[in-house]
Every structure is written in structure tokens, then in C-alpha cells.
Fold this protein.
Amino acid sequence: MESKQPAVLVTKSNGASVPFSSEKIKQSLKRSGATPELIEQILRELYKQVYPNMPTHMIYKTAYALLKKSSRPVAGRYRLKQAIFELGPSGFPFEQYIAELFRQAGYITTTNEMMTGHCITHEVDIYAIKNQQANIIECKYHQLQGTHCDVKIPMYIQSRFKDIEWKMKEMDNHQQQDYRGWLITNTRITQDGTQYAACMGLNMLSWDYPAGRGLKDIIDKAGLYPITCLSTLSRHEKYLLLEKGIVLCRSLTENPALLSDMNITGSRYNIVITEASHLCENIMKLEWA
């Protein structure tokens, strides 16, 4: 039988007070692969620790700590959102990570490419092509939760995309290439930003948009977890890997020597590889874009 949920207000990252609800926690635990018994166990403990005005990030941090004691791979999947926030501080690792998602979907990608528009030259975060489809992608990485992309961001990105598209169509020689502009962010997009982008035909991908096909859904389905999910690596070790352009857990399983190069050997080497392997066990090619 499910434990009784306490009636208490907690504080979201944007400062708003909302009633404590276990439903989001249950869903994220379930999506991470936790068993019903483990979910119930964690909720029982959370109900004992939650207090008025408790920050929601502390609730999730507490749940993560409890989960890590039972299953590190499940814990790694559970902290996915925080792991994406750790693809910084520059935001370039986030761009590399998104490029990997496009590659997994069958695209050939380049990053930080200078592209000539009809009016000016632009630096494009990611250029991804497959068959007759060319994608011009701008990534907006935020390091703080509660930060949203307002309407000015898609307006700016759309204007850059149209300038590049104009020039590319001039050079297309009637090949009937399909051009698509993208805004991809690790947080959320405001309602007017979403409305504008939809009206102008600008593709968008955020943490939970489109519904059921957002960034969190793609990662869970494709199994392409970032190395920042790993609980067996220190923050400094993750940073060193990101500096080398290593963004995927899969990269460690495919090239374990990366750990040896960092003097991670012996039993700890085995623990890290085991956790990374469990996170990568359901990798699949996903036609999401």
C-alpha cells in the first residue's frame, strides 16, 4: 500500500510555492528503471524528511542519495536533468552532446561552423545533414535551473536561419534541399516563445518539449547518457573528460583506455566501466529528428 503523502508546500526553482506531490518523483523513478518496491521505499523515506518550503531540488537530491545506495545505474538515469546542467560551464560540451544525438539518428554533423548568409556570416553551433535535409541548429545552454528561453531567443535564431537559408538556396542549383532551423535548450521555452517558433516553422527541442518527445524522452529511449550521469567519477574527472571532447558514457565503454590515461585503474576502473556499461545497455538508433 502506498504511503500517505504529507500536505506541505515546497519551493520550486523559480521561487513559486506548490503543494508537495509524489507523482513527478514516482514517474522519474519509474522512468529511471527503479522497481515498484524501491519506489515505495524511497517515497516512505522522503515523506519523513520533507518540510515546509523545502526546495524541490533538495527533494530530488535526497531521492538521488537514497537511490544511489540501491542502484548506481538507476541513480545515474534519475539525475539526468542535473547531469545535463553539468555539461558546462561554457556550453560547448552541451553542443557536442546534441551533435551526438543527431549522429545517433543518422546525421553527419559538424560543430561551430562558419556559414555565409545572404547578409552576413554566422557561426553555427551544429550543422547536421542527412539525405536531402540540412539542419541549422542553435543550442542555448543554461547552467541554472529555472532559466527559460523567452521569445527573443527564437526570434533571433529564426532571423539567422533565414539569412543562411537564403544564401544556401541561391547556391542550391535546384537540388531541392530541405532546410530546417532549430532551437535546442536544456531548460524550457516560454509559451510566447513556443507560439512564435511554431508559427514560423522553427523546430524546437527542450527538456520536456515537444510533449513526450522532449530531450529527456530522447535520451532515455536512445540510451545516450552523458558522462556527467556517472556517480563513480568525481566532478574534476568528468571535467577533464569533457575538456577532451568525451561526452558520452558509451565512449568509455568503447575506449576504456580513456580511464587508464587518467590513472583510474584497478577496482575503481572496473566500478566505473560497470556503471557506464549498465547505463549504455539499451542503446538504440532512434529516428527522432
